[in-house]
Amino acid sequence: MDFSIDYNTPSPTPLTTYEKETPAEQLKCELTPEEAYDIQRDRWLSLQTALRENLNRDKDSRYVTNLQEEIARMISNGFTYKPKPEPVKAVPAPAPAPKPFEQASLREELGVPEKVSCENCGENIVPGNASHLRDLDGETCILDEARIKRSGRFTKERLAELVALTESVRKNLKKENGN
Ligand SMILES: [Zn+2]
Q1: DSSP per residue over 131-143, as a string?
Q2: If you measure from the C-alpha of residue 10 to the centroid of ligand 1, how many angstroms do you get, rounded to a whole number?
Q3: 34-60, pLDDT tens digit by residue?
Q4: Is the pLDDT reported for residue 120 higher than 80?
Q5: How far is the CA of 146 from the centre of ligand 1 (A)?
Q6: CA-based R_g, the chain, Å
Q7: Does the pLDDT value for residue 2 go beyond 90?
Q8: pTM over 0.85
Q9: How far is the CA of 141 from the centre of ligand 1 (A)?
């Protein structure tokens, strides 16, 4: 039989975990031997420093005696001083490998424009020139007849010849591409 009546009261607050917390004594025991030794060493060093200072000031003082007693107690408890190990230096990361030589970046650096395909013969040429020497036949490929004419590099007849030759190369290229 169940005689409990639900009055809709709030449930009691849960018990605190205070009692379960690890006491300070217990925490000490969880130190690794290295950590425990570090504490001992720090204590030893501070005792030695204090002793040195007070010996200079008043070697017969009660404080000096106390320090000497404390040091003697540590020794009798088996403490022997070992200097702190040098921290292991992190190995420096290797320098990044030098970038492989990049033709493009050098070209940009020197301000050399990227070559383009000639509209007449399809050969790779530096853009912006009025003409270029064709590898195909060693003749001058005319890109801008007016500019070449103004430069006076060729006689009227020779220029007309070169323009005609360029035109025929252009037609042949078109035919080739058409196939
Ligand atoms: Zn060309």
Answers
A1: EEE-TTTSPEEES
A2: 95
A3: 888 888 899 989 998 888 888 888 888
A4: yes
A5: 16
A6: 47
A7: no
A8: no
A9: 5
Pairing of strands 131-133, 140-142: antiparallel
Question: 161 C-alpha to center of ligand 1: Å?
Answer: 15
Distance 110 CA to ligand 1 centre (A): 24
**β-bridge mates for residue 142, sequence order:** 131
Clarify whether residues 121 and 169 are in a common domain: yes
Residues 117 and 74 in one domain: no
Q: Ligand 1 centroid vs 131 CA: distance in angstroms?
A: 7
Angle in degrees, 0-180, between the axes of helices 33-58 and 62-76, rounded to the nearest 10? 150
* Residues surrounding ion ligand 1 at CB below 5 Å: 118, 120-121, 141
**Closest residue by Cα to residue 130 from 120, 119, 145:** 145
The total of structural domains in the chain comes to: 2
